[in-house]
Amino acid sequence: MDTSFSALAIFVLAASVLASTFDRRTKPLERRMARLEQKVDLLMAHLGVEEPVDPRMAEVDALLAQDKKIAAIKVYREVTGEGLAEAKAAVERRMR
């Protein structure tokens, strides 16, 4: 019993160390990616270039007109690759 407790404690400790290491590596990359996206957005605005609208966004609007919010969120996620919470918020903004 004592050895299984020790093994479990070592496993939990190792898992927490790995998780914190992974988090420390991804946070700077996420910040750097956000800065790069801002710079690209500024360049596009300066040049007057607009991002092309995916034709499936019309499908999202059509689903919203039919009161099919969940299906609209699903299509929005497929088009944009965003997570559930972000897609839900974006679809709700489109509803207004």
Task: Supply the key terms.
mainly alpha; 4 helices; flat; 96 residues; 0% strand
Describe the structure.
By secondary structure, the protein is mostly helical. The protein has helices spanning 2-47, 56-65, 69-80, 84-95. The longest helix has 46 residues, at 2-47. The protein starts with a helix and ends with a helix. The mean pLDDT is 88.
Q: How do you describe this structure in short?
A:
The protein has 96 residues and is mainly α. Helix content is 83%, strand content 0%.
Helix vs. strand class: mainly alpha
Measured by DSSP, the beta-strand proportion falls in under 5%
Strand element count:
0
Give helix % range.
over 70%
The rough form would be described as: flat
The termini sit apart by 60 Å
Low-confidence regions? none
Main beta sheet, described?
none
Radius of gyration: 22 Å
Oligomer: single chain
Q: Determine the mean pLDDT.
A: 88
Number of DSSP helical runs: 4
- The H/E string reads HHHH
List the helices and strands and how they pair.
Layout: H1 2-47, H2 56-65, H3 69-80, H4 84-95
Helix pairs in contact: 2-3, 3-4
